[in-house]
C-alpha cells in the first residue's frame, strides 16, 4: 500500500497533489464542525472536564482525516477507538470508513473495517441498555450503514477509477500500435515506390543520357551543326542531373535523412544554365540581401523554381524568361515570368492568349507548387499579368526573420 501510494504521489503533477491536500483539509474541517456542533448541542454536551477531553478527542480524530492517504488505516483505528470514548457516531467515522476502503490495499483494508465495526459493537454493548437479541440486530444495522457501506463505496470508487485508467491505457496502446502499423505500411510503400522508380525511370533516363552522348560524339565527327551538338550536350547534361536528383530522392524514400546533397537556391544558376542549353533564354534577378534559409525550405524553393521553369519551357512562347528572388526581412519571394503562347481559337472568337493545350500537366505542376508552398505556410499566385502578355507565377514563403547573411 505504501509503495503504491508513493508511486501515485510521484506520478501526479504538483497542482493535482495540492488540490487533493486542499480537499482533504476541507473534508476534515467540515466533519470537525458537524461533529463538534452535534456533540455540544445534540450529543452528551459539555458539562464536566471529562466532556471537554472527549470533545478534544473528537477534534483530534476528525482533524486526522486531513492526513495523507497512507495513514488511512491508523485514522480508521483511531475513529473506532474514539467512538467508544465518545459513546456515539459522527460524520468523521463515515469518512474514515470510506478512506479505508478507497485507499488501503491488502490486509490493512479489511483490518480497518474490523476496527470501525468493533468500535460500534463495543459502544452499543457498553452504553445501550437493550435486550441481547435486539442489540445484535442494532449492531448489524449500525455496522452495515456506518461502516460497511462507506467502506464498499470507497472500494467501488477506486475500482472504477482503475477500470477507467485501464481503458485509457488500452486506448493509448491501441493508438500507438495503429500508428506503428501505419508507419510500417508507409515504409513498405516508400520502398516499393523507390524500387519502381529505380527499375523504370532510372533505366530510361540513363538510356537517354547514353544515346544523347553517343549521338553528340558521332555528329561532332561529322561536322554537324553546332546548334544540334549543343542541344544534344544539353540533353546529356540534363539526363545526368536528373539521375543525380533521382538517386537523391530514392535515398530519401529508403529512409535516408541527409539533405546535404540536395540542391537549393545556390544551385538555381546551374538550373538556369541547363534551361539555356535547351534554347530558352533566362534572366536571374536577385533583390534584397541574400541570406541562408533552413535546408528544407531551401530545397523546396529550388524545386518550386524548377517546376516553374519546366512550365515556362513547355508552355511559354520562347521569349526570355525572368526569374526573380526577393529576400525580404521576414519572407522570401520567388517569381517566374514568361511569355504566353497564343492558343488557336475558332474564327469569330477573337484573338485570346492563355495556356496552351495540355492543361492537365500544367495543373499538376501548379498543384505541386501549391503543396510545397503550403508545407511552409506560403502563398501562391499565378495567371496572366494585366495586359495578358506574360504568365506570372509568384510564391512567397515566410521565414523566421533575418538570418546569417551570405555573400551574393
**CATH homologous superfamily heading of the domain at 265-398:** Histidine kinase-like ATPase, C-terminal domain
| Low-confidence sequence ranges | 1-10, 345-361, 402-408
Q: Give the end-to-end Cα distance, rounded to a whole number of Å.
A: 70 Å
User: Compute the gyration radius: what is it?
Assistant: 42 Å
Helix content: 55-70%
| Order of helical and strand elements | HHHHHHHHHEHEEHEE
What does it look like?
The protein has helices spanning 2-11, 14-42, 49-63, 72-86, 91-103, 108-127, 132-221, 226-253, 268-277, 295-315, 359-375; strands at 282-287, 321-328, 331-339, 379-384, 390-398. Among the domains are: 2-129, no CATH class; 265-398, 2-Layer Sandwich (Heat Shock Protein 90). The chain is of the alpha+beta class and 408 residues long. Strands 1-2-3-5-4 form a 5-stranded mixed β-sheet, covered by helices on one side. It has 11 helices and 5 strands, in the order αααααααααβαββαββ. The two termini are 70 Å apart. It is rod-shaped and about 130 Å long.
Entry keywords:
alpha+beta; Heat Shock Protein 90; five-stranded mixed beta sheet; 11 helices; 5 strands; rod-shaped
Strand and helix map with partners:
Elements: H1 2-11, H2 14-42, H3 49-63, H4 72-86, H5 91-103, H6 108-127, H7 132-221, H8 226-253, H9 268-277, E1 282-287, H10 295-315, E2 321-328, E3 331-339, H11 359-375, E4 379-384, E5 390-398
Parallel strand pairs: 1-2
Antiparallel strand pairs: 2-3, 3-5, 4-5
Helix pairs in contact: 2-3, 3-4, 4-5, 4-6, 5-6, 5-7, 6-7, 7-8, 9-10, 10-11
